[in-house]
From TrEMBL:
It comes from Pseudorhodobacter antarcticus. Keywords: Hydrolase, Phosphoprotein. Residues 22-138 form the Response regulatory domain. It holds the Pfam family Response_reg. The modification 4-aspartylphosphate is found at D71. It comes from the Bacteria. This is Response regulator receiver protein. InterPro entries: Bact_Sigma-Reg, CheY-like_superfamily, PPM-type-like_dom_sf, PPM-type_phosphatase-like_dom, Sig_transdc_resp-reg_receiver. The lineage of its organism: Bacteria, Pseudomonadati, Pseudomonadota, Alphaproteobacteria, Rhodobacterales. GO terms for biological process: phosphorelay signal transduction system. One of its GO terms (molecular function) is phosphatase activity.
């Protein structure tokens, strides 16, 4: 083995600006090695010699040579076998391999390429051609080093993004837990009737909200909300609306009031919708809007007054085995200032149910893209009518998953189900 230091001469060869490229010359002919070594050293390269493939391979295990010039025909280990072993050695950078050969058959050249050789140089070596081959190798090594640096920067950036994503994911998981607490009760028996609620966001957090509250001893309020969009902004809006609808006193709950006798009462449903619409423009002032179904239910008589503001039609599930859809549609809240809303009335008898449901149910698509719609919802409700309220809502989720082809629904799924006990 012989290592030759670079000289301050170029002879037309590129002289690296920083540390010169390290070239390994492998040939069993000492004379051939000396010719190549001296030419390369005068051109500014660091050069190391090896007299066989075996000794060259041992050197390559210790040193990451930039370029290898290896003879094809050598005893013990020829140039092809050495090239194979060289290419599988672990190293950080790329090693450019040039085979020196007197062979010119296309099949033999193909064998060299299959072994991993990057280029060929015919023997006896022509110095002008050697310059061209080395310049090509320099370009490849430069591009490879640049690519490695870019990959390193990409990898570092991805690592940082992964840390940020993991942090956001943890925060969103906690936000999901907090959002679930907005539905303070999933079931309550009011004596004359009972209410069950379900809330299943399509992502970590969603824009749906359901709930109920007691107006007085005879009446309750039940609501279903769907905020436009998805994600954190929608979830924050549901938190704001939860505070406006779930409070137990008139100064906390936008639907409650005190009548002229000082007794607890509630605004008519259409007034509740109008008050929320006015608050969206005067106080909240965001780009979002939401749909609402809100019902004022008399526990003793079964008389229901409700408003539908852009929400799917509330379903009345009759004990006798029919489903009616009520409501007039209406405008979403926060979309048009001074919008007007209509009050709808209906009656429930013992065993009847009222279902306020989000469009995540009615617009849930099948694998073929067909929405469930009111007809599909009717089939599910009637098929599970004999179940209790909580069991019926659970069955609805299962049937919806079967219809969709999975449980990762494209939209939030929510609803509030009231049953008249009489």
């Amino acid at each position: 083995m012989l290592t030759v230091a670079p000289q301050n001469m170029t002879h037309g060869f590129p002289l690296p600006e920083a540390l010169p490229r390290h070239v390994l010359v492998v040939d069993d002919s000492r004379a051939q090695r000396r010719i190549l070594t001296m030419s390369l050293a005068r051109s500014g390269y660091r050069v190391t010699e090896a007299d066989s493939g075996m000794s060259a391979l041992a050197l390559c295990r210790e040193t990451a040579f930039d370029i290898v010039l290896s003879d094809w025909m050598m005893p013990e280990m020829n140039g092809l076998d050495f090239c194979r072993e060289f290419k599988v050695l672990p190293r950080d950078g790329y090693g450019y391999f040039i085979l020196l050969t007197s062979k010119s058959e296309k099949a033999e050249i193909a064998d060299g390429l299959d072994c991993g050789a990057d280029d060929f140089l015919a023997k006896p070596v022509n110095l002008d051609e050697l310059r061209a081959r080395l310049r090509a190798g320099e370009r490849i090594l430069g591009m490879q080093a640049e690519l490695m640096e870019k990959n390193r920067l990409v990898g570092s950036t991805l690592d940082e993004l992964q840390k940020i994503y993991d942090s956001l994911d943890r925060d969103l998981i906690e936000a999901r837990k907090l959002q679930q607490t907005l539905v303070r009760e999933r079931f309550r028996d009011f004596g004359g009737g009972e209410v069950s609620a379900m809330l299943r966001p399509s992502g970590h957090v969603g824009g749906d909200l359901v709930g109920f509250f007691q107006i007085n001893e005879q009446r309750i309020g039940v609501y279903s909300v769907d905020v436009s969009g998805h994600g954190v902004a929608s979830a924050m809006m549901t938190a704001r609306l939860s505070g406006l609808l779930s409070g137990s006193t008139p100064d906390q709950n936008v639907a409650l009031r005190v009548d002229e006798t000082g007794a607890r009462d509630a605004h008519p449903p259409e007034v509740v919708a109008a008050r929320l619409n006015r608050m969206m423009f005067d106080d909240i002032q965001v780009e979002q809007y939401f749909t609402l179904a809100y019902a004022d239910i008399n526990l003793e008589t079964g008389f229901v007054e409700l408003v539908q503001a852009g929400h799917p039609h509330p379903a009345v599930i009759r004990k006798g085995g029919t489903v009616e859809y009520v409501g007039t549609g209406g405008l979403p809240i926060g979309l048009i200032p001074d919008a007007e809303y209509d009050r709808v009335q209906t009656w429930l008898t013992t065993g009847d149910r009222l279902f306020l449901v989000s469009d995540g149910v009615t617009e849930c698509p099948s694998p073929g893209g067909e929405e469930l719609g009111e007809e599909g919802l009717t089939r599910i409700l009637l098929a599970n009518q004999s179940m209790s309220n909580p069991a019926l809502l659970e069955a609805l989720i299962w049937d919806l998953a079967a219809y969709f082809g999975g449980e990762d629904f494209p939209d939030d799924v929510s609803g509030a189900l009231y049953k008249m006990k009489g």
